[in-house]
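If you are new to this repository, start here. Below is one unmodified record pulled from the training split, so you can see the exact layout before writing a loader.
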Amino acid sequence: MNQEERAPFILVVDDEEEIRTMLHYTLTKQGFEVITAQNGDEALSIVKKSEKQPDLIILDWMLPGLSGIDVCTILRTKPNTKNIPIIMLTAKGEEFDKIKGWESGIDDYIVKPFSPSDLVGRVRARLRGRNRAAFVQQVLQYKDLKLDTASRRVTKGNNTFRLGPTESKVLECLMKAPTRVLTRKDIMYDVWGGDEQVAPRTIDVYINRLRAALNSNEKEDCIQTIRAAGYCVGGPGTGNGGKGE
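And here is the target side for that same chain:
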């Protein structure tokens, strides 16, 4: 690392001192700058008062006071923190818990107990993705549907709105190959890197949320379901009202 580069700044939020200490040691050893917080209020205070924003946040769900879900929701509503990658680290491993986590706007989900080396790998992957996004702005278009991948701004007809981070990634995946039918597995690999912790139902949740946003004033379904195959923007077949295949 040259003198002009700085170590990525990571905020670790967990109420278990043993985990905070272990992650601080592991991540510092890997060259990251690390600060820790033991609850949601402390984490939000650090983000607000720090001279620099964290490059990534590792966030426990079950915190005293504000939960990790609450913290994530708050961060996603603020312009200066809405794009910070968030990895949720939690003992909650049921499918409905994971779906709730993804819906709050997290970027990755790791269930305790976990492998420190796997977590470091995921941290590096998320930081690489963020760095690429900072330099690449792409506008994807299919008919009257436009997606600015950098700002996550969508224009459809005369309507303009902004998507959450994961909704934007799912729509980008579909719009990179309009009219091509993508399976759940295709979408999972493109958006989540093939993470086995992402349940198929999670993908359905995001498709349905996209439909709700894109089709609010439309009779025709923008994202179509091809039975026993997958999803596509445009192309053959007709939508089925938001049901998965």
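Two things worth knowing about this chain: Helices lie at 17-29, 40-49, 68-76, 95-104, 116-135, 165-175, 184-192, 200-214. The domain at 9-135 is CATH 3.40.50.2300 (Rossmann fold).
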